[in-house]
Amino acid sequence: MRHGRRSATVAVSMILFAVIALTIAGCSAGPATGPVKPAYTTGPAGSAEVVGYLWRSDLEGGFWAVYDAPLSPSSAVQPKILAVLLPGSVDEAGIAALDGRYVWASGRTSGGVSTRMAGPEILVDGIDVATPPSQ
Description:
This protein is of the alpha+beta class.
C-alpha cells in the first residue's frame, strides 16, 4: 500500500510543479500569431505584456514606450502610453530597428517608483514585431 501512496504523491507533485511553472510563465507565452489590439495586461507573479506602437520619447532623458496608436504630428489627440520599457532592460541598438513598428513586449512589472509618470513600467524579457489590427 505504501507504493501506491508514493505513486500518488509523485503524480500530485508533478501536477503541482506543472501548475506552478505555468503560473510563473504568466504572460510570456510569446507574441500572438494574428492581429492583436493594443493593450497592457498583467499576469501572475508580476508578469506583464504590452502590444502597441513603439516610439522613443526624449522626455526626461529618453525612454522607449509602447503607445495605443501611431504617433502623428498632425493629430490633435496624442496617443496614450500603455507602458514604458525600462531603460537598461532593452538593447538600445537592437530596439532602434523597431522604432515606429507595432510590437509585442513581455517581461515583469518593475514594482519601483518612477519620476516619469508616463505609465506602468516593464522590465523587458522579450520584444518582437506583432500584427496590428485592421484599421
